């Protein structure tokens, strides 16, 4: 058989289908699938991780220029160095010009405010929040880089069409019609990435989202205290003079004849602008663009997401990272080159002198940083369940808050349909599947049971006889790609009406005909309240054609407030349960059991 072509029988086919052998239908018949789930492990062996995925490294980062020219960003190192040399020469030349000298006398670099002297010094909360901020940022940035490596391409449209990305650190997408996003993922060394394993996005996300909540809380407290204590005037420009002064400072730095520092009571204008942008623009933008990648929020906030797609959010989120990295490098360099002892005394010891006190407090804090940095990846690999649990405790409440179901079908139109929808996951390769496929799924039966009044086994003909439902929706893969497709099939409401879940049923568990990468059936549990949404359906058509092998023939799930990994493809059965604790590993799905994802992932 050619598995790359579309599958599925003519819905109105004349063939009389054999009625199912008189199997005894009991609510428990789907329970048998449970025995085919694989128990997960609670530690990670990097050599067998994610189905023994080899540790592939990315390429140098490239930016697309024009249609298909790619610029290797490594060139920025020599180019940047050359630009620096030119800038120094130009700035030194400028400072010889009398008009420039006049300008710099008028705008020496620092705008003093009336309250500058009164607000001199740094309260202890600033020192603490500065430290916590930098400590949290380490884990956020490292896990963020890890997440990026899981789909090493950035786009400006929601379509994620290969070749249309503006940035990549991976080769062009190969000419393989079944190439998956997982095959496309790369890795970075464990001291950069967190946890530094290829396709470890589940764990990286717990770090990223979990520490993010702490970072945000720290930031909110910081901003509140800034305004309560009046210290905000140190970080917010209050006069347009900040711009000419910043230019003056830039010339002074570039000419290597640096400005006098008055950091104890006032920052120079360039510094002020950099801090202002970081605290009041970059940090909120990081949050907004982060949330912009969430399926639950995007389907709720249609007016925003129709203009700024998840890919715009992801690209901007990356550019915010670039800002932070640039800021950190320049900030740290200047702290150490513009009077290190005095600067460290300001921030770490609240004193304005040249003693070593601040340095030693800083050094002690760096021990904590180094321990955290060195320990984070090994801890994650040894205790992944701990990371999963703590991460869920930190971000879980927000995730549940965002997953309210109010999305209406037909959110996108035919013209929004993506020309290319990435494939993902592990394809079913069993003889069982092959025979079903070769026979156009005539022998296929969808088993539905568990906590229901009327368990059923449905042939594809019977599934197709149920009222037809169609929706054009956007798919969000946890790895970062997205795409819009039209899905045709049967609404889950129809299925619920047919089988009538009992009141105790709280979850619908979908079992696949395919195995997951570590063996055992792929499965996933969905909250029943989401299965009642208008946008929950079993699809057998995609973009007006029978669902293909790659996209999940004969049936796949759509639940538009969740990420792609929860949309089980090649469905064999559905079991309604009160609780998923005794299914598989008990974490609510294959990726939750084996790759430490979360069972509700609406962000
Ligand atoms: N049975 C099964 N279903 C699966 C997977 C899988 O590995 N096995 N992968 C999931 C993931 S991670 C994604 S993003 C979507 C991809 O669907 P697509 O290939 O149709 O785009 O399928 C999901 N369903
Ligand atoms: Mo995915």
Automatic annotation (TrEMBL):
Transmembrane segments: 73-94, 131-149, 214-233, 272-297, 318-344, 356-376
Keywords: Membrane, Transmembrane, Transmembrane helix
Region Disordered: start-end pairs: 1-24
Residue span, Oxidoreductase molybdopterin-binding domain: 440-578
Signal sequence annotation: none
Annotated Gene3D superfamilies: Oxidoreductase, molybdopterin-binding domain (3.90.420.10), Transmembrane di-heme cytochromes, Chain C (1.20.950.20)
Cytoplasm recorded as keyword: no
Protein name as catalogued: Oxidoreductase molybdopterin-binding domain-containing protein
The organism of origin for this protein: Microbacterium kribbense
Lineage, opening ranks: Bacteria, Bacillati, Actinomycetota, Actinomycetes, Micrococcales
């Amino acid at each position: 058989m050619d598995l790359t072509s579309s599958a599925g029988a003519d819905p109105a086919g004349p063939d009389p289908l054999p009625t199912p052998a008189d199997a005894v239908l009991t609510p428990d018949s789907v329970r048998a699938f449970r025995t085919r789930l694989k128990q997960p492990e609670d530690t990670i062996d990097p050599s067998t991780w994610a189905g023994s995925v080899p540790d592939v490294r990315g390429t140098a980062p490239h930016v697309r220029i024009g249609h298909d020219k790619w610029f290797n960003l490594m060139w920025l190192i020599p180019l940047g160095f050359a630009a620096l040399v030119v800038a120094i020469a130009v700035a030194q030349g400028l400072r010889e010009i009398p008009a420039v000298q006049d300008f710099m006398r008028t705008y020496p670099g620092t705008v003093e405010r009336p309250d500058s002297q009164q607000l001199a010094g740094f309260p202890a909360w600033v020192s603490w929040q500065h430290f916590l901020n930098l400590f949290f940022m380490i884990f956020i940035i490292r896990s963020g880089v890890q997440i990026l490596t899981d789909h090493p391409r950035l786009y400006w449209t929601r379509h994620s069409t290969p070749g249309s990305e503006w940035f990549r650190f991976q080769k062009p997408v190969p000419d393989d019609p079944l190439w998956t996003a997982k095959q496309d993922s790369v890795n970075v060394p464990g001291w950069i990435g967190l946890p530094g394993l290829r396709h470890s996005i589940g764990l990286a996300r717990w770090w990223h989202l979990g520490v993010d909540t702490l970072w945000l809380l720290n930031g909110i407290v910081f901003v509140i205290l800034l305004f309560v204590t009046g210290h905000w005037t140190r970080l917010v420009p209050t006069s347009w003079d900040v711009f000419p002064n910043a230019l003056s400072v830039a010339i002074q730095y570039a000419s290597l004849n640096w400005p006098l520092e008055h950091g104890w009571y006032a920052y120079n204008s360039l510094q002020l602008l950099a801090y202002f942008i970081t605290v009041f623009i970059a940090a909120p933008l990081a949050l907004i663009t982060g949330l912009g990648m969430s399926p639950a929020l995007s389907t709720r906030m249609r007016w925003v997401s129709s203009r700024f797609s998840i890919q715009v959010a992801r690209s901007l989120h990356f550019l915010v990272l670039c800002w932070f990295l640039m800021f950190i490098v320049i900030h740290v360099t200047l702290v150490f080159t513009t009077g290190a002892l005095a600067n460290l005394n300001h921030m770490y010891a609240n004193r304005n002198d040249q003693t070593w006190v601040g340095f030693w407090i800083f050094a002690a804090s760096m021990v904590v940083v180094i321990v955290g940095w060195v320990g984070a990846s090994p801890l994650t690999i040894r205790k992944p369940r701990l990371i999963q649990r703590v991460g869920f405790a930190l971000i879980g409440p927000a995730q549940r808050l965002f997953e309210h179901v109010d999305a209406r079908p037909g959110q996108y139109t035919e013209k929004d349909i993506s020309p290319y929808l990435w494939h993902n996951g592990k394809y079913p390769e069993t003889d069982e599947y092959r025979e079903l496929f070769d026979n156009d799924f005539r022998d296929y039966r969808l088993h539905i049971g568990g906590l229901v009044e009327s368990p059923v086994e449905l042939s594809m003909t019977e599934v197709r006889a149920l009222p037809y439902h169609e929706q054009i929706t956007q798919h969000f893969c946890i790895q970062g790609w997205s795409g819009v497709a039209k899905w045709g099939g049967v609404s889950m409401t129809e299925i619920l009406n047919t089988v009538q879940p009992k009141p105790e049923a709280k979850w619908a568990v979908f079992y696949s005909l395919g195995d997951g990468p570590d063996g055992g059936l792929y499965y996933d549990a969905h909250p029943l309240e989401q299965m009642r949404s208008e946008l929950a359906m079993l699809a057998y058509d995609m973009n007006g054609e029978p669902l293909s092998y790659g996209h999940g023939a004969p049936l796949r799930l759509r639940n538009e407030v969740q990420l792609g990994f929860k949309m089980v493809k090649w469905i064999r059965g559905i079991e309604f349960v009160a609780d998923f604790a005794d299914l598989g590993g008990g974490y609510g799905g294959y990726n939750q059991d084996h790759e430490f994802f979360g069972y509700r992932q609406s962000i």
